[in-house]
Amino acid sequence: KKKIAIMTSGGDSPGMNGVVRACVRMAIHMGCDAYCIYEGYEGLVRGGDLIRKMNWYDVRGWLSEGGTLIGTARCMAFFERAGRLAAAKNMILHGIDALIICGGDGSLTGADRFRAEWPSLLDELAANGEFTTQELQPFRHLNIVGLVGSIDNDLSGTDATIGCYSALARICYAVDLIEATASSHSRAFVVEVMGRHCGWLALMAGVATGADFIFIPEKPREDNWREEMCSIVEHHRKIGKRKTIVIIAEGALDREGNKITPTMVKDLLADKDGLGLDTRITTLGHVQRGGTAVAYDRMLATLQGVEAVKAVLEATPETKTCVIAITENKIVRKPLMEAVQDTKKVAKAIERQDFDEAMALRDAEFSE
Ligand code: ADP
């Protein structure tokens, strides 16, 4: 019987439980044994009861649970070869030769590294006398499939990451709540949202709530952004709008690569010599990650989980490590490392302040 393990890693996102449920059940449905690795790579490195065999009913009700019930962690040991060697040993002890990992670009980078190193890890285990060559024979080919769980929608090659629509829905809900009080008091609110290097959450939240002004990392405003923002807000006020909402991504920058902070924006809107608005800052923080997954993320988690198990079962030693994506509403397999490298290219372009390149890369992602 093939033994397939599933794990969640890196930052949690709504929908991860749906992924685990789908993978466990599809694996069992296909006649395999399903395992969960608890606490991300930490569970793989430490082994023992952090690697557990799962039954069909163990994941009952998981679709409507937030976060990840099998835990996630940032694991320093997995950055070191010794940690990955311990991970390989634990997998072999449990008879596992296929791994489905749901996480962000960091987790998927770790996965690719693990697979690339796998043959030499086996050699080292044999040389250390941990296993005989014969015992290792069935494990010659490690099969890894990635799934993208992230609220940021920051992975290249997929239109939506599992969790991003839940986070977006939560931001919209929070802004709706804020708007009622903003309107009542004629206030301005500067709302900071998550997203790291990616402005998707801020941009889409701005569109979905009709925000007055948006700041994202990939496309900094022109140098005169202060005047531009104030004149737009002033215009909206003149035509009778009693509330002002400015959405700012946590990674927002100006053209020189300096951070634009909510405080800077607040001070500008509140400036007595300018608009003089009663302005408050709301940092949504981890509220954006919490709660249950919206219907779209549950669907994505389930369809992609099923596809991940299919990809594991169809893989040959020649198959490149793949990540399950959604492109134009179709669930597809893509080379994992290309998706991760393209993602890093955007972050690097932003770091070098090559914003035209960052935007061109983002445009290419969505018009693929
Ligand atoms: P995310 O998956 O959400 O991007 P991180 O970047 O924190 O989150 O990565 C999660 C974990 O993946 C890390 O704590 C580490 O255990 C593993 N990991 C990330 N990058 C690497 C790498 N280059 N080599 C080995 N392991 C890695």
Low-confidence stretches: none
Strand order of the largest sheet: 3-2-1-4-5-10-11
Distance between the first and last residues' Cα: 39 Å
Q: Strand tally, please? A: 11
Order of SSEs, N→C? EHEHEHEHHEHEHEHEHEHEEHH
Q: Percent of residues in helical segments?
A: 40-55%
Number of helices: 12
Strand content: 15-25%
What composes the largest sheet?
Answer: 7 strands, mixed
Which molecules are bound besides the chains?
adenosine-5'-diphosphate
What is the radius of gyration?
23 Å
| Helix vs. strand class | alpha/beta
Q: How would you describe the shape?
A: elongated
Report the average pLDDT across residues: 95
Quick synopsis:
This protein has 368 residues and is of the alpha/beta class. The chain is 45% helix and 16% strand. The chain has helices at 16-29, 40-46, 81-93, 105-127, 133-136, 164-185, 200-209, 225-238, 262-270, 295-314, 336-351, 355-366; strands at residues 3-8, 33-37, 51-54, 98-103, 143-148, 188-193, 213-215, 244-249, 279-283, 322-327, 330-335.
